[in-house]
Task: structure prediction
Amino acid sequence: MTKENFPREFRLLTPENFNNVFKDPIRAGSPYITILAKNSDLNFPRLGMIVPKKALKRAVWRNRAKRLIRESFRTSYSELENLDYVCIIKPDFLKIDNQEFSKLLKKLWKTISIRSRK
Result:
């Protein structure tokens, strides 16, 4: 079941949602991004993003990061576990191109899935 959009219900919106993920999360990371995940009571995965201005000064860079994460989440949606995910961008994100970053995200989604089953 591939979703063609990214509706509000698939997003982490409140600080409570984010704080829940930060408490004892499942982690996967690289020099460009860290993904934290936590079990959810819902029957679908949800995504939250942290793209700090300190890491990426220009809005264009921050928007690029968010767009790539959302697209990867949307296309991988049917393969993801029912977890709450928080993606945290790091400053080195600017050193990687879009195609490599997309491949990296697919790999990290799989890593999180494997770790969540243990």
